Amino acid sequence: MFEPRTIIEPFRVKMVEPLPRRTREQRAAALRRARLNLFALPADEVTIDLMTDSGTGAMSQGQWAAMLQGDESYAGARSFYRFERTVRALTGLRHIIPTHQGRAAERILFSIVGRKGLAVPANTHFDTTRANVEHSGCEALDFVIPEGLDPQSEHPFKGNVDVPRLGHWLEHNAGRVPLMVVTVTNNSGGGQPVSIENLRAVKALLARHKIPLFLDCARFAENAWFIRQRENDYAHRSPREIAHEMFRLADGAMMSAKKDAFGNIGGFLALNDDALATECRNLLILTEGFPTYGGLAGRDLEALAVGLDEILDERYLEYRIASTRYVWEHLAAAGIPLMRPPGGHAVYLDARRFLPHVPPELLPGQALSIALFLEAGVRSVEIGTVMFGRTRPDGKQQPAVLDLVRLAIPRRVYTQSHMDYVIEAVQYIWRHRERLGGLGIASEPPALRHFTCAFEPVGWDPLAELERTEHGQGHLAQLPPHRAAPSSRG
Ligand code: F0G
Question: How far is 263 from 306, CA to CA, in rounded Å?
Fold first, then answer.
């Protein structure tokens, strides 16, 4: 019997989109215009875009077909009821409130439950979640297990909450906690999963203090797949059963449906508390739209309802997690420092160990992501000091806990040869890593600075050639050595 080892894409291609190809010179010019911020690049400059898996997935024929049935009625649209039925069946939660994306759900929720003096614990808050919690005046605190902060740890559930530490903290702080958030999978911690066992323990602890548990469930299906693979007793349960089990422990959920709902746009807030739901709907009307569309078109709601079913397909999840692992394994085999083990939606380069001569204050993650774009047209995103650090009063950077570069893989978009190209590109930068230096922040906004800040190189020229060819007449010898000038450790 033919028992293939190859896990194939469980779809074939029906429509294609040309891939932008640019020269290195064009990319250098684009980077200069963008002031070295990859968020400021026109996407047409990017050949393989791994900046995010959010809203970048390919929709299926089932989703496109459903869109033609979108009911665009202002109130009571058929598409809303279909969406509501699907989300309710998945989460078991009573009130289903559509929003235009995840952060809209966060803003609505936290502007109601949050205020100065209160605190919202999480495993790790995603950046928009943290910003919305803090915008309400609340403190946003992270309680991920210590292994979750150690890129080398092979713990199977590095997204887990440190329950003893949370319990200890709650003894003195429970009175100022309106709710807790558990992010599945834990995006800011490397796309690492949370186990059912941990969710149960968190739920039991919170229940003792009468604190509701909310899931930030953007990647719930990937989390369910990891549970099936790694947690005792779940190997024979379907991803849908496991997802039910996860949501059964929650009092509410926020979702960016741009991830595990195959949506290009969309999100929701789901909860059981009647009074809170009424308040949320009232605020929704003020800022997003009437509660049966929440800032989305009826056709979007149709696509999301179909996507939320498709995402739980076992063959899809098997392929999805295997394809992320494929990239991870090839990079790991080349000795490239990575966040271990491979996560769900992304491979994370450990920029501090990739560029040990660039101290965290000089933003090694940003330097690495710029080099990857410049040399290969691969766009990634820094998840480190730029995103989570801050500028101290003395003008220096306060480093984040980790400096990672995320290669996020859009769903059903790129093929294995695209990924082989990415692997080759990262290996090329790895071979020439000593030529990379550090960066400073030239200007920044008051919050979520990574989106719009401008960078300046410190003591090197990031746009100079790394090397013209690997084996031919390289420019390497003619260039002065580029090292991060002021505080280089190398
Ligand atoms: N929660 C998590 C865990 C997320 O990853 C995101 C978005 C959000 C909430 C906010 O959702 O973008 O729909 O408003 N993450 C994207 C990313 C942007 O690239 O990881 P949104």
Answer: 10
State in Å: Cα 190 to ligand 1 middle: 13
What span, in angstroms and rounded, lies between the C-alpha atoms of 115 and 413? 41
Tell whether ligand 1 has an atom less than 6 A from the beta carbon of residue 56.
no
CA-closest candidate to residue 194, choices 103, 124, 251, 260: 124
pLDDT value, residue 489: 34
279-305 residues labelled b (16+ CB within 10 A) or e (exposed): ebbebbeeebbbbbbbbbbbbbbbbbb
Report phi then psi at 97, rounded to 5.
-120, 110
**Neighbouring residues of 458: CB distance < 8 A, sequence distance ≥ 6:** 362, 437, 438, 439, 440, 484, 485, 486
pTM value is 0.92
CA 205 centroid distance within chain? 27
* Tokens read off for 437: 């230096």
183 lines ligand 1 (CB under 6 A): yes
What integer pLDDT is reported at residue 160 of this predicted model? 98
Question: Which residues of the chain carry a pLDDT beneath 50?
Answer: 472-490
Q: Who contacts 45 (Cβ-Cβ below 8 Å, separation ≥6)? A: 20, 22, 26, 27, 30, 377
What is the distance between the alpha carbons of residues 198 and 54, in angstroms, rounded to a whole number? 26
Residues serving a catalytic function are 74, 126-127, 216, 218, 259, 450
Q: Whose CA is nearest to atom 5 of ligand 1?
A: 187
> What b-and-e string marks burial along 102-113, b requiring 16 or more CB atoms within 10 Å of the CB?
bbbbbbbbbbeb
Which of 130, 249, 124 has its CA nearest to residue 198? 249
Q: Is the CB of 324 under 6 A from ligand 1?
A: no
Q: Is 54 in the pocket of ligand 1 (CB under 6 A)?
A: yes
> Length of the chain, please?
490
- Check if 268 has its Cβ closer than 6 Å to any atom of ligand 1: no
CA 129 to centroid of ligand 1, rounded, Å: 8
Q: Please name the residue whose Cα sits nearest to atom 15 of ligand 1.
A: 54
| CB count in 10 Å sphere of residue 353 | 14
Secondary-structure breakdown of the chain: helix, strand, coil percentages, each rounded to the nearest 5 = 45, 15, 45
How far is residue 334's CA from residue 488's CA, in Å, rounded to a whole number? 25
Encoded amino acid at 440, one letter: G
pLDDT at 471: 53
Could you tell me the CA-to-CA distances from 416 to 8, 319, 373, 421 in Å, in that order?
Answer: 10, 11, 19, 9
Could you tell me which residues come within 8 angstroms of residue 171 by beta carbon, excluding any fewer than 6 positions away? none
